[in-house]
Amino acid sequence: MKNYGEELAYWYLRFNGFFVLDNFVYHRTPHNWNGDADLLAIRLPHVKEPIGGNIDDWDEKLFSYLKNYDVLGVLCEVKTGPGADLTRAFEHQKVKYALNRIGFSKFEVKEMLSANDNYFILQCNRKQFLKLVVSEHKVQNTDTFLTFSLEHIEDFIYRRIDTYIRQKYSARHFFPSSLIQYMMYRKDKEKRYRIDSDE
User: Fold this and answer.
1) Phi first, then psi: what are they for 18, rounded to 5°?
2) For residue 28, what pLDDT is reported?
3) In whole angstroms, what is the distance from residue 30 CA to residue 89 CA?
4) Distances (CA, A) of 81 to 4, 78, 110, 148
5) Which end of the chain has the least Cβ crowding within 10 Å, N or C?
6) Which one, of 158, 16, 41, lies nearest residue 168 by Cα?
């Protein structure tokens, strides 16, 4: 089961047009122990949806780093405790395992890892792969991964719900997440309160 941080990060990626796997398993290999990543996601470039899938709906901060791609992958680790240890989160073999699972070719994987291994965006031609950390507590930024605060993720989700509150609230029970359903309830309640206060 996802904790609240992982669930918020999952819906953040979903609301930005990604297809998301949670608890992505690294099976044991000669170079790797069994383990898992919190989220692995893939996005194609022309995502479109009538409700919440328009070009102005995506998070500007995220997509300021991601431009002109044909396939975009994300490996995401979520930390809700202080003093999170991220030294092993994006080890070479784990990233390679995730790149293969996304479906990049052998040549693309080799190019990405040889040219960009210590950078938060790996790329080959128009294929990109982002190493992302979502953290409740402050994490020191490095070139190796991009860090977003859990507060930023939460704010984005609330803004998206607020933009489409009528549609989202009426469809809330179709979202398989009690946390997201509750956030939709909260936003609807806030809007009703504002309307009542203005009258």
Assistant:
1) -95, 150
2) 66
3) 18
4) 12, 9, 34, 15
5) C
6) 158
CA distance 46 to 84: 35
Burial class (CB in 10 A: 0-12, 13-18, 19+), 162: middle
Average pLDDT, the chain: 89
Residue 155: count other Cβ atoms within 10 Å of its Cβ.
13
pLDDT score at 87: 78
Record the pTM: 0.91
Cβ neighbours for 195, distance < 8 A, ≥ 6 positions apart: none
**Contact (Cβ atoms closer than 8 angstroms) between residue 121 and residue 128:** yes
Are the C-beta atoms of residues 79 and 133 closer than 8 Å to each other? yes
List CB contacts of 63: < 8 A, sequence separation 6 or more.
16
Pairing of strands 121-124, 71-79: unpaired
Q: Which two tokens stand for residue 183?
A: 């956030």
